[in-house]
């Protein structure tokens, strides 16, 4: 009886270990698939961005690509180097909290081009003049929406700025808190200092592209 009981316990342990391994493998595969898809989207957008910048006499050294489909606790703002075809810098980026029927969550951003919606807007932007900000490092850049999905950005006072509480490292599986952005692409002070230096040294307009 004791021997049978020991065999039974060992069998249960083995089954539990196998189940655990399967779950871990499945989770890793899911994460890897997501990263692969995000990388594919990034490279596709980078190629399109290069063609756009060449055609419209924009900065052809780098652009800023923001993939809002990526978990908000992971880096999803990328400075893409057109020369090396690689990422120079990456950081967290908050999306708009929205309101009413257009209320975003940490896991699911809602997009709108409507004034007062407090939502992020997808599309290409031209980064404009440098100005004072009450947030972060006290610097912001005006944003001019170039598509039907974001052409109210300037009127909505959508700007590129930082917020001091924004972490400099990924916080996944946690999401960024809602309320840090009313529609602006908000990043960390560290990233903003990096971008501020780069943007001030380039005379041509720089492309920022928010996509999903």
Question: What is the compact description of this entry?
Answer:
The chain is of the alpha+beta class and 212 residues long. Helices cover 31% and strands 24% of the residues. A hairpin with a 4-residue loop joins strand 2 and strand 3.
Descriptive overview:
With 212 residues, the chain is α+β, with helices and mostly antiparallel strands. The protein is 31% helix and 24% strand. It has helices at residues 2-55, 189-200, and strands spanning 62-67, 77-81, 86-91, 98-99, 102-103, 123-132, 139-145, 159-162, 186-187, 206-211. It has an eight-stranded mixed sheet with strand order 3-2-1-10-6-7-8-9, with helices on both faces. Strands 4-5 form a two-stranded antiparallel ribbon. A hairpin with a 2-residue loop joins strand 4 (98-99) and strand 5 (102-103).
Question: What are the main properties of this structure?
Answer:
two-stranded antiparallel ribbon; 10 strands; 31% helix; 212 residues; disordered N terminus; 2 helices; alpha+beta
Give the SSE map:
Blueprint: H1 2-55, E1 62-67, E2 77-81, E3 86-91, E4 98-99, E5 102-103, E6 123-132, E7 139-145, E8 159-162, E9 186-187, H2 189-200, E10 206-211
Parallel strand pairs: 1-10, 8-9
Antiparallel strand pairs: 1-2, 2-3, 4-5, 6-7, 6-10, 7-8
Mean pLDDT, nearest integer?
88
- Helix/strand/pairing class, anyone? alpha+beta
The shape is globular
Residue stretches low in confidence (pLDDT < 50, at least 5 long) are 1-33
The count of β-strands is 10
> Could you estimate the helical fraction of the residues in percent?
25-40%
Biggest sheet overview: 8 strands, mixed
Q: How large is the share of residues in beta strands?
A: 15-25%
Helix count, DSSP H or I runs of 4 or more residues: 2
Kindly report how far apart the N and C termini lie.
61 Å
Strand order of the largest sheet: 3-2-1-10-6-7-8-9
What order do the SSEs take from the amino end to the carboxyl end, as H and E?
HEEEEEEEEEHE
Radius of gyration: 22 Å
């Amino acid at each position: 009886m004791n021997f049978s009981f020991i065999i039974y316990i060992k069998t249960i342990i083995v089954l539990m270990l196998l189940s655990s391994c399967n779950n871990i493998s499945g989770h890793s595969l899911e994460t890897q698939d997501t990263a692969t898809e995000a990388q594919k989207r990034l490279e596709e957008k980078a190629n399109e961005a290069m063609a756009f910048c060449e055609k419209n006499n924009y900065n052809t050294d780098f652009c800023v690509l923001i993939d809002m489909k990526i978990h908000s606790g992971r880096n999803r703002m990328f400075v893409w180097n057109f020369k090396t075809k690689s990422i120079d810098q990456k950081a967290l980026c908050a999306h708009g909290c929205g309101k009413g029927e257009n209320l975003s969550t940490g896991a699911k951003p809602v997009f709108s081009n409507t004034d007062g919606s407090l939502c992020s807007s997808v599309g290409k932007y031209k980064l404009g003049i440098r100005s004072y900000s009450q947030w972060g490092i006290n610097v912001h850049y005006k944003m001019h929406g170039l598509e039907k999905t974001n052409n109210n950005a300037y009127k909505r006072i959508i700007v590129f700025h930082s917020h001091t509480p924004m972490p400099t490292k990924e916080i996944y599986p946690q999401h960024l808190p809602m309320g840090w952005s009313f529609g602006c692409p908000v990043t960390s002070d560290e990233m903003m200092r990096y971008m501020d230096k780069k943007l001030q040294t380039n005379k041509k307009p720089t492309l920022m592209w928010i996509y999903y």
